[in-house]
Amino acid sequence: MARFLPLRAGGLGFQITAAIVGGLFAGAALGAAPYTISQKDREFRPREIIIKRGETLRFVNDDGELLHHAYLSADSFDFDTGDQQPGSQFDVVFSVPGDYTVLCGIHPKMKLGVHVTK
Ligand SMILES: [Cu+2]
């Protein structure tokens, strides 16, 4: 049993180190790590999210064959991912505080509430 302990500890240490290094790299380059918004079965998942100003949402098309097209059109902030192929992703930095509803240009019932705090 004792022989396994150093191996397990070493493995865990590597994972922690990798997470820290990855976090630092992302922090230096892009700000905080993005929150993933999955688009699957004609829904955004999650349907609501609270983030801080300057944080990033990563829109991922997790549907096997469907296109998605997330967009937001508000007075203070807007974006448009364009048509997203299955498997593709698109990052959006929310730089303006507010309450927003993101829609899909292809599936009118898809809605995502984004609440951006200061
Ligand atoms: Cu869609």
Automatic annotation (TrEMBL):
Name this polypeptide is given: Methylamine utilization protein
Keyword match Transmembrane: yes
Listed transmembrane segments: 12-37
CDD domains hit by this protein: MauL
Keyword Lipid biosynthesis: no
InterPro entries according to UniProt: Cupredoxin, ET_Amicyanin, MauL
Organism for this UniProt entry: Bradyrhizobium cytisi
Superkingdom of the organism of origin: Bacteria
Secretion signal, residue range per the UniProt entry: none
Keywords annotated in UniProt: Membrane, Transmembrane, Transmembrane helix
